[in-house]
Structure prediction request, 77 residues.
Amino acid sequence: MSTVEHINLLETKLVKVLDFAKQVIAENAHLKTEVELYRKQLTELGEEQSHIREGVLSLVDRLSQFEELLSKDNSTL
Prediction:
């Protein structure tokens, strides 16, 4: 194989490596964007879960108050 052929082969392989590197960089950027979206969704779900928990605790408290009211009414009968 001549020197020119070696250089051409090296150039071909280098172009392939650079193309692959570009693909990896693009995929990495895409994955970073997806990770950021998932983090945002996770934060929103956590906030929603806190809101639901607060609502449930409020309902439990109201039910307890209602039970107390009922038990007071029954004890006076």
